[in-house]
Amino acid sequence: MSETASNGSVWPISxxxxxxxxxxxxxxxxxxxxxxxxxxTPMATDLGITEGAAGQAVTLTAxxxxxxxxxxxxxxxxxxxxxxxxxxxxxxVASNVAVALTSDYLVLLAARTLLGIAIGGFFALAGATVVxxxxxxxxxxxxxxxxxxxxxxxxxxxxxxxxxGEAFGWRAAFMAAAGAGLLALLLQAICLPSVPAxxxxxxxxxxxxLKRRHVRxxxxxxxxxFGGEVCGFTFMxxxxxxxxxxxxxxxxxxxxxxxxxxxxxxAIAGVFADRVLRxxxxxxxxxxxxxxxxxxxxxxxxxxxxxxxxxxxxAIGAGPVMTQTWMGRAAPDQxxxxxxxxxxVIQFGITLGAIAGGIAVDSxxxxxxxxxxxxCAVLAAVTIATQRAPDGxxxxxxxxxx
Length: 402
Hints:
The structure is a single chain. By secondary structure, this protein is mainly α. The chain has two domains: 13-191, Growth Hormone, Chain: A, CATH 1.20.1250; 203-396, Up-down Bundle (Growth Hormone, Chain: A), CATH 1.20.1250.20. Helices cover 81% and strands 0% of the residues. It is built from 16 helices and no strands. Helix 1 runs antiparallel to helix 3 and helix 1 crosses helix 6 (139-168). The two termini are 32 Å apart. 54% of the residues are buried. Mean pLDDT is 84; it is low at 1-7 and 393-402. It comes from Pseudorhizobium tarimense.
């Protein structure tokens, strides 16, 4: 094990490199997950399928990520977590190469299933991999850096993949994603130290986690956050077009500001997660609620609209870091198990958010999903504000009523 950072200390370069290699992994995973959205039309045409069928490549990935999240930790036992991360990066490479080379729709779906397993496994084990590198006291900072890769993927991948697809074809875009996965694999092979498992996760231990109040609270607010955020973001463009009267030229800066702000949110969230977890967590949700209400007030100036989009982005960038840190502090002795439950809830929330958004749009119009987002955000803020933040030490006592 490489030298670890202590609370308030300056990390050695080895720690920065090891955590940075995980950031590259999260970037490769998220970029690969979103890639079909950027090349949907040419991919569907080339494979001779409908765009709806091609879109299931994203849906299937999300489903298997949710399934893999709580189960990967159950089957890997005490294998070195570095080895597991390298295997997951290899799955990313194999999945993208297979999609790039195939002309068979079923092979494409099978390859995307492998990617779902990689996503579920990586993010479920992220907390348990980061904490031995940086200590529990710096978990928020460590997760903040790892999740910057996720935010960067959300911002960079769709536009870059579209450009590559237009210039060289959709298959080249998947080969580029395979290259990103290979780079992450090489960096982790070189920079990531051995991360021995402290314990093996069992099915009974997962169920016991649900007896801890702070774990249950984290799962509930995670469901509210991710479900509400996806509900609003999925239908953001139609809302701005229909209710705001904005064209594509005016909408593009709004979405760009939102995406860049999410990077900032991921970058700064770790400081607040480590120092004022409960207040920072509640403020994140409150910011999302206020920003969403602001976006619903389209009588405001375009500059104000950009400001609300920036606040929205900061909140959605900070949210995953805050939630992961809360869950880790709630169960420091079961980081892999609680990480699996956390990611399963994320995928369930994404699915519910997309379904709720579609129903809301069809029933009440394009502004309805944003009202759902604001409501979920306020409920999450109130829930967290009424709780005592987990401090890790009390959780180690394994008191179900903590």
